[in-house]
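[Primary structure, fold]
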Amino acid sequence: MPAHSDAATILGERLRTVRNERQLTLEDLGDLAEMHWTNIGKIERGQVHPSVETLVRLSTALDVDPGTLIAGLHADMYPGRTHKLTARDLIEARRAQES
């Protein structure tokens, strides 16, 4: 099954790296995070986008900050994004209209 997105692939690689550094099996991490190990495998392969709760459970079990798993990921890494606008762009446009 192909990856959902570049972001999912990167997150999965980071998760696998940390798990391997801790010398944990998927089953070990599943027990620690109170999740089924097959779901963790899907995340590691980039097949699913985990919820915030799942990220927090996994990072807590691995004793890492959840931010380390998602650092540098951005919306452009997901398919189907139709614009590149941010809140800053909207605020600047509103200010320009008011002038």
